[in-house]
Amino acid sequence: MYLTKDEERIYDGEYGWAKQVSIRILVKLGDLYGADRLIPIESAHISGVAYRTIGDASIEFLKELANSNAKAAVRATTNPSSIDTMNQLFSCLPRNVIEKQREIINLYETMGIEITLTCTPYYIRRPAFGSHLSWAESSAVIYANSLLNAWTNREGGPSALASALVGKTPNYGLHKPENRRASVLVKVEAPLKSEADYGVLGMYLGEVLGNRIPVISGLRRRDEMCLKQLGAAMATSGMASMFYLDENYVGERSFEEEISVDDKSLKASYERLSSTIEKPDLVLIGCPHSSPEELKIIARYLEGKRVRDDVKLWVCASKYVRRNADEYVRVIETSGGHVICDTCAVVTWLRELGVETLVSNSAKTVHYAPLLSKVGASLSSLEECVKIACGK
Description:
The protein has a five-stranded parallel β-sheet with strand order 12-11-10-13-14, sandwiched between helices. Helix 5 (138-147) packs across helix 8 (224-237), helix 7 runs parallel beside helix 8 and helix 10 runs parallel beside helix 12 (326-334). The N and C termini lie far apart (61 Å). The chain folds into three domains: 5-176, 2-Layer Sandwich (Aconitase, domain 3); 181-272, no CATH class; 274-390, Aconitase, domain 3, CATH 3.30.499.10. It contains 14 helices and 14 strands. By secondary structure, the protein is of the alpha/beta class. The mean pLDDT is 96. The protein has helices at 5-11, 17-33, 51-67, 95-110, 138-147, 157-166, 195-209, 224-237, 263-273, 292-302, 319-323, 326-334, 363-373, 382-390; strands at 38-40, 43-46, 75-78, 133-135, 168-170, 184-188, 214-217, 244-245, 257-261, 282-290, 312-317, 338-340, 357-360, 376-379.
């Protein structure tokens, strides 16, 4: 892989150990995937923030970087942690767990990385049209490529962090125009009514597409909430990092395969995600984290209602969105719900927080919660989730 003179100096350690180890990670990745060079990025988004998922070994690596004066070379944001440290709901967790999580956050902050703690960094700052990124959260990657026309591969936490410290990423995969062409036409014939249905479609498509890029036709709703759930689910069940809506695709329409999706096609995915839970411990909305518009919708559904005493209602959102949707947050919390920041159900300790069963409008949550936390989970629409939380 070609390196500029300046990049060679970084590689040889002239700019310090932190940059050296970072560029060597990127060069190794580039060699593996046939990249010709490194390219500048507008921003990085780093996973590997939640103590529950990264553990102690990663903390030691972060310490080594911070002690070597590592500093972000571009704007860099962070994925959710395991805890909302400002919310008393999480104070029941062991003290050492809370302290370890704070240590991770402090280490990233020392490196000049923004402590956003959200999987939806695009609500804080929208990437420029056509910009190159190095993002590591799968739902954010597919959102950026598909809905924002930004260019990013599906990075891992270490490679996104390395890109943040160097300001560059290897030029391969979805950074190249020829790799962004669609090869499959998906014709949706099933009547999708809610964002939860879009999540089911996403789970099905992720399984059948692998990492192929589809053009999707026949979607009756184009609102952002539905498309966000579609992409997040595709990235959960498969390696999809991009899709096109039929009306937005301008490339060649010589597809390798056409797939028709009817109710029968989605039946297995529906059944897997829709187990009957009459009285869940938790109703979870906001995976990926909620937008201001979603908080507005939730507040409208909750107006004049009260969350049942025996059910927790969590609405996950970034601190940024919470601050800018104070009117809707007030309605949600006056009704007995909680607007949770900095974490989500996928990366926290649900059972330790008293959750054994949950209902969510997120196919991603319903897929991961049984696997990672051993809790029962069922899928319902946002509107139905609020009804369940209020017992009506």
